User: Which sequence fits this backbone?
């Protein structure tokens, strides 16, 4: 069985093309697809009534016109919120999408998906199971899928309930016991915060058969340097810019 990590493109649109469109919205996913980006990363969390929705924070205040906690707000109420004007007034009609709505857009463009599990603390099992149920029903079997998380319990739950799917372990710094952790969690990839990139450590990790990805990289020259040093893929808010730099280097 082919690993989704073997089908990775070097550039992953971070929360969609979120440098130009509001993050984790259908607009940012459409833009990534229209730019020809092959992979996207989005975040999933539960509404009060248990629907997996695409949103990064626990709190609504940063990217909507409301306040309060996601997990205490019903889907119906979430759908009334403006999730785009904070980025640009032209996006005032953007709403918080459900996972199902996001899948429809992503699959339309034939993109791979890295779905980051962002459970509210205490709702790890519920968030993971609800997301898996939607994915099993709607995610096209011919498109690659990775589930990732910073959350230990979410990854353990994903490994238990859907062992066939590829898992990614999100960290800031590379842990000293990276191999033991990756093997224990059943993860095929390590996703690190870019400032903690270490060429020697990355080489060792890759020699052990794991992929190494880094977030969030918006500088083209930095991305090209990291690729030369062994990085497999970058998460970027401006994926089209990074992709252009890769294409230009190939032509040079």
Assistant:
């Amino acid at each position: 069985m082919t690993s989704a990590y073997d089908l990775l493109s070097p550039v992953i649109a971070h929360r969609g093309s979120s440098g130009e469109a509001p993050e984790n919205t259908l607009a940012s996913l459409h833009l990534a697809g229209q730019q020809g980006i092959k992979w996207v990363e989005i975040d999933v969390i539960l509404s009060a009534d248990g629907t997996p929705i695409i949103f990064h924070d626990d709190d609504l205040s940063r990217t909507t016109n409301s306040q309060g906690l996601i997990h205490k707000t019903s889907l119906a109420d979430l759908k009334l919120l403006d999730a785009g004007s904070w980025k640009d007034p032209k996006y005032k009609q953007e709403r918080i999408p459900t996972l199902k709505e996001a899948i429809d857009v992503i699959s339309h463009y034939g993109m791979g998906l890295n779905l980051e599990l962002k459970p509210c603390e205490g709702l790890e099992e519920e968030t993971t199971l609800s997301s898996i149920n939607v994915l099993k029903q709607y995610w096209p079997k011919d498109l690659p899928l990775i589930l990732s998380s910073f959350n230990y319990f979410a990854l353990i739950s994903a490994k238990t309930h859907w062992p066939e799917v590829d898992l990614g372990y999100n960290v800031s710094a590379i842990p000293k016991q990276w191999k033991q952790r990756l093997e224990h969690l059943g993860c095929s990839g390590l996703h690190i915060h870019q400032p903690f990139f270490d060429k020697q450590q990355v080489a060792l990790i890759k020699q052990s058969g794991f992929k190494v990805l880094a977030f969030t990289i918006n500088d083209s020259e930095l991305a090209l340097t990291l690729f030369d040093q062994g990085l497999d893929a970058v998460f970027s808010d401006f994926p089209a810019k990074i992709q252009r730099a890769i294409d230009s280097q190939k032509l040079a």
